[in-house]
Amino acid sequence: MSTTTDSKIRIQLEDFSVTDEIEAMKKVSRNIGGITTFLGTGRELSKGQNITQLNFEHYPKMAEKKLEEIRAQAIKDYGIIDMSIIHRIGPIDIGENIVLIVAVGEHRGETFKACEWAIAELKRTTPIWKRETTSTGEVWVQDTP
Amino acid sequence: MISLKYFASLKSIAGKEEDSLEIENPITIDQLSDIISKTAPKMGAIIREKKVMISVNQEMASADTVIHDGDEVAFLPPFSGGAQ
User: How high is the mean pLDDT of chain A?
Assistant: First the structure.
């Protein structure tokens, strides 16, 4: 697991700074005119039950590889300048950061589209699993909306 | 020898996170599911009913994908990363 902000694809236990990640991406090019971010956070209510904690597990190597593929395809298909994707694993409390996608481009249009596509693709293709802890026990979430 | 990896909900079904298996010749995923069914019927059924995805050496595989000695086979339940 890489923890430096130099790498544009990271899966890590520790929290990240959204501001630092955006600033790092702004340094990629002087032609950046639009930045879209998606930040996923731990939600308390799921299917009517109160969640006390989330826990994420990943398949090392394959998950990083899939995120790199998503980044490369987003750059190619949407014409953005660059993209970073950071996903946390391990225990995550309600309200904490889970995943951050930063898409940078010359104009806003392509960055909005690339960011929305990337989070949907991440959920569809990246081997990362979420376990929710509620008052009635623990359950692995298996639906992918 | 091939290595087998189980993730998320499959760990409790398989009763383990990792396993290994000696194979004399290359086998398909279908043949592997038959072998697993003999010792772990519930896991074998889940594989046959395609309730999980399977990767070989971190690439998605299908029923006729051939597994060779030294390969890493992983059983992957539906993904749920990211956030809604």
Answer: 93
